[in-house]
Amino acid sequence: MKEIVRDTEKNRLLISDRDEGSRLVQKTDFREKMLINNHIEGILELTVNVTDNRKSYEYDTTGLNTLESFITKRSLGALSLKEILKELCGTVINGDRFMLEDDDFVIGPEYIFLDKDNHPFMAYFPGYDRPFREQMGNLAEYLMNRIDYRDKEAVLLTYTVYMKCREEGFYIGDLYEYLKKENVTGGDVQKQPDMPLMDYPFEKIDEQPPKLLEADIYDIEPVKDTVVKGPAAKEMIPGNKKYIIYIAAALIPVILMAVLYKAGLLTAKNGRIDPAKMAAVAVLGIEVAVYMVKKIIPVSLKVKDKKITDNKDVNSNDDEATELLFDRNGADSKQEHYYLESDRYPDIEIDHFPFTIGKDKVNTDFCLNFPGVSRLHARLDRTNSGIYISDKNSTNGVYVNGKRAETGIPCPLSSGDTVELGVCSYTLKKNSNG
């Protein structure tokens, strides 16, 4: 088991192998000599210590700051990201000259150190044996969740690195060449000192939605011929209905046998249970259960074709709860239909409202499984006043025309607006079926 400890008081990084400590003491790895006897650009200077018959590696971090600490103070721009990632790859490639293994470099935001000019340094630990491709992919994913999503160059650069690390035929030389050739200009952005890591000083959207929507619309799930009051409304998850139906179906054979047994219809003339009758009833019960599952689930849980047709709002005064009336039977055939279009990502057809988007395959209407997208990221609603999108407390936010939407507050959308969810950029389109 490898143990990595940062000693900030003495400006050093300590790495040891508890399981193999004794064995390592018995021999000196040739790579240790390479590291001790050569100054290799981008690799922390190494000292090998032996204590209680255990070997540990000590790396000098004087005057250096971790990448993790650096990011808490500012958002890395595209240019800094490119240079740091390029130099990391260059260091690993250069290690081949000294017979260093790619998978023995320790790559992580808390173990990558930057000097005052943002040049990165890594620890090399013989026998670490963590795939470089996997480590670099994890680093790219970490960076994607912490960059400023208004910096399009930084988003595209980091996402491209992430995707290259996931390719089957990954080769570090290809990644290095891409980073060398990529032309970016974005600089770093200083963060406000009291702000959490993911919160940036975004501007508020100029056009605020009507007070009616701000208070109520987001807590309402359409129910056929039913008036739903906002504060009391709760979202219905189709998966829960499925579980109830499955359980009920499973109980049918049991209940059927219990009723027939009590009526004395499952016993033979000698008073004992007749196995043939039991088997017949069990088969019958199972057939009824299967029929129930096949017939009821498609009817009760079908969501593909549902549309909002009648959307009326009543707002008598500020002190009373707002009421919205929905009809679930379907939208007017002449009503405009919306979809989100992208050149790089799958188009999203919004075929009913409310419409949820996120990584969760079960509890969203569209699964968008890309970096930066949360499990439940955004929700779209339509009223008689238009179409709206809201951030469902996602990690990286929902952006409309480059401005971050406030969490939980519906933001109005128009055809042609740009909508960004994580690394995915879309344009809202509409067509008419009339």
Protein described:
The protein has 434 residues and is of the alpha+beta class. It folds into three domains: 1-201, Transferase(Phosphotransferase) domain 1 (Transferase(Phosphotransferase), domain 1); 211-218 and 308-313 and 329-432, Tumour Suppressor Smad4 (Sandwich), CATH 2.60.200; 238-301. Helices cover 31% and strands 23% of the residues. It is built from ten helices and 25 strands. The strands form seven sheets. The protein has a six-stranded antiparallel β-sheet, with no helix packed on it. A five-stranded mixed β-sheet has the order 18-17-19-20-23, with no helix packed on it. Strands 1-2-4-3 form a four-stranded antiparallel β-sheet. A hairpin with a 2-residue loop joins strand 19 and strand 20 (386-391). Helix 4 (78-94) packs parallel to helix 6 and helix 5 (132-144) packs antiparallel against helix 6 (152-166). The protein is flat and about 95 Å long. The N and C termini lie far apart (67 Å). Mean pLDDT is 75; it is low at 19-26, 191-239 and 299-333.
How are the elements arranged and paired?
Layout: E1 2-7, E2 12-17, H1 21-26, H2 30-37, E3 46-51, E4 54-60, E5 65-66, H3 67-73, E6 74-75, H4 78-94, E7 105-106, E8 113-114, E9 120-121, E10 123-124, H5 132-144, H6 152-166, H7 172-181, E11 189-190, H8 211-215, E12 226-229, H9 238-262, H10 275-301, E13 312-314, E14 323-326, E15 336-341, E16 348-350, E17 355-358, E18 366-367, E19 378-383, E20 386-391, E21 398-400, E22 403-404, E23 411-413, E24 418-421, E25 424-432
Parallel strand pairs: 17-18
Antiparallel strand pairs: 1-2, 2-4, 3-4, 5-8, 6-11, 7-10, 8-9, 12-14, 13-14, 15-16, 15-25, 17-19, 19-20, 20-23, 21-22, 21-24, 24-25
